[in-house]
């Protein structure tokens, strides 16, 4: 069997940076094209929830002084920009991804390096840099959940999703990038991903693959 072939029965869905400040038009960190993939990401979250498979929301939290942000972001944050600042509405997951609209992130827990459990099979993990595996509990959490396949969707492919996919490939995960649920993913990126064994799927293709067999 091809060692890169995804196994959806032992998969987890990763949503990347689907937070108000990155998604909502007019928000201080809004990434072009991200509001347009919210419905697709929400659809995938629903598919994984119904299958009782893990959903992990990977998020950013920028301290007011910018000290925990990437170097290229620190000056703007230190100058007063409030982007995904802990305990603000801008840092929260966009409402369509929430189990309960009233549910909020626990910034103290997340910044301490622990995963926040939202439901039996749903978690939030904070990442301090582009890739979701860098100085995070993600790899240990996935091992606990017996996950060997990751399905990646969310915000701003050139930065955090791409870094996450490459880090996951280095850790021998089987990988799927969801082409219509990743903002700023372009056709020329497809060959780069398939060249290292990452499979490309659309939301509708995954829905068909995840559908229970007809009786």
Automatic annotation (TrEMBL):
InterPro entries, per the entry: Isochorismatase-like_dom, Isochorismatase-like_sf
Chain ranges of the Isochorismatase-like domain: 11-191
Domain of life of the native organism: Bacteria
Pfam families: Isochorismatase
Protein name: Isochorismatase-like domain-containing protein
Originating species: Haloferula sargassicola
The organism's taxonomic lineage, starting at the top: Bacteria, Pseudomonadati, Verrucomicrobiota, Verrucomicrobiia, Verrucomicrobiales
